[in-house]
């Protein structure tokens, strides 16, 4: 590529690569700059597509964007499979939200009521219905609900698929670190650098540490449960994501720290909650314990849109716990903005200028 | 080395290498055969030198050998440091044996009474004395005792030190696997192959799986406790071995299995017991979870001496949980037997012929 690119993207995680794929498919000349594609938060992420179970009090606009993006996922996954030739492990088995103790169940119910009030699809189950759906749950689990529309994908399959699709569409990957936006020479620069966006843009993006385990069913078969399980267990909030490969992802801590050490206490809490909810997990192999850094923002919502005071620079970062589910809508909105110059109304609550003229919001 | 060696040793773990060092130091021509020196049980071992805390009911003769070998350790470590130029982390801070609950304490006390009855140095402490010695212990620990003569060494420093000492004394390491004793051409062959001895000799040596964790104090300082801690915690029996480097070894399961997978349930049990006994361990990094295979025998005692029906073949294996503490006495007894032809009376309870003419004792 000898001519100046139309779009230069900083960051080859799912968001950056999806934007590259979509833009290149629209005929734009695209470069993607990252010394280690897929090595950020997505490497650790579980890949839950959870607009319902992740709908929390006071995050109404984020909940809407999660639902919009989750609705785009089936088509996105199908398009991506066709464009890349790879399967990203999209599974629509749904999610069970369960409470171990009476206290845990009370906490879960408070959230279900809120989610039902928003009209979101979550249905409480009688204990017998819960066990009919997942006999692997511990008998002492007090109750639960099903969110049939909360699905999953495998982030470690997503990144190479997106990369293949982007490169087949003509995007060029440049495996080098970008130290400053002044290094970029393109009509539009997109900062999709996760936690790295803070230094490049001075936006209030901060690392939020998450520790995650990967177990594997003995004998290399699939796990004995099919649903994603989100559990409240003696005050711990965890998730269990089963994959066809036999892998079960157990996560995750949420810590205001910037290191990536795995700590004994976090592993203990995750394993204790996991085994309390699904006892057979005690017999699974523990194959990986890792920590990653999510790009968090002051309001827990992503930052998508033009960077104030920097013409030609767009931002797509701060996806925090929602990077995988928000990948399709982020890519679509950014690509449309680049192609048409007109921001979609969906973007309005998420643009960088919400943090005011004082860009250091921390 | 073009001439036929005097001694060919199968296995370059601590026992094999110590025999090599001692024999070479006596002027014998020695070869040691192992494709991966130090990769067996010693790689996972914690390195406790515990003749007292490991004195169990019904193992009187083994207890005597443990005490004899532990008494040889200070001199052995000093000789080895001089011969190798390396420090093996010998520490004489002593061992605390503690019980978390009243039930745990009752179980521990039963064993202390037995050990005291044998005249072994173990002294019960009042709870205040216990906490004075190790303030890091959890307040809920019900009681304990001190075994001042139970020390520690670092097996991962021991193996390279022994290898250096053996090679400096003239021993030659051959990094190849020995498939059968008929491959060996030496005046004396010594089988020190751990679990591998079963196939080579048909002696009743079986793998006993142990899962072990390695934690590291945050900030890279030394752990806040100095003693080896052996704890009974809600029915779990574990040990915590602090090292100057900041490492704390937490072990170990005892499983009649031959795989080396790390399981979620074992890690959970080890971490729970560790954090219950020493709460600050929750903040330590979890840097390694591994499983190894100890060479177990029907009576839990090692097998040392001439292999029946095979002139010129000696055996030094089956050290089970005691390979590190028994290294000095094993090396001394085998070397003396090779040099003098006369078995030390200490060997009598441990010779291979105790399993009878029918060598398949399993």
What does this structure look like?
2 copies of one chain form a homodimer. By secondary structure, the first copy, chain A, is of the alpha/beta class. Chain A has 9 helices and 16 strands. In chain A, the strands form 3 sheets. In chain A, strands 5-6-4-11-12-13-10-14 form an 8-stranded mixed beta sheet, sandwiched between helices. In chain A, strands 8-2-1-9-16-15 form a 6-stranded mixed beta sheet. In chain A, strands 3-7 form a two-stranded antiparallel ribbon. In chain A, helix 1 packs across helix 9. The longest helix of chain A has 25 residues. The mean pLDDT of chain A is 95. At the A-B interface, helix 8 and strand 14 of A face helix 8 and strand 14 of B.
Query: Helix count of chain A, per DSSP?
Result: 9
Instruction: Please compute the radius of gyration of chain A using only Cα atoms.
Output: 20 Å
Instruction: Identify the quaternary structure here.
Output: homodimer
Biggest sheet architecture of chain A: 8 strands, mixed
Q: Give the largest interface pair and sizes.
A: A-B, 22 and 22 residues
Low-confidence stretches of chain A: none
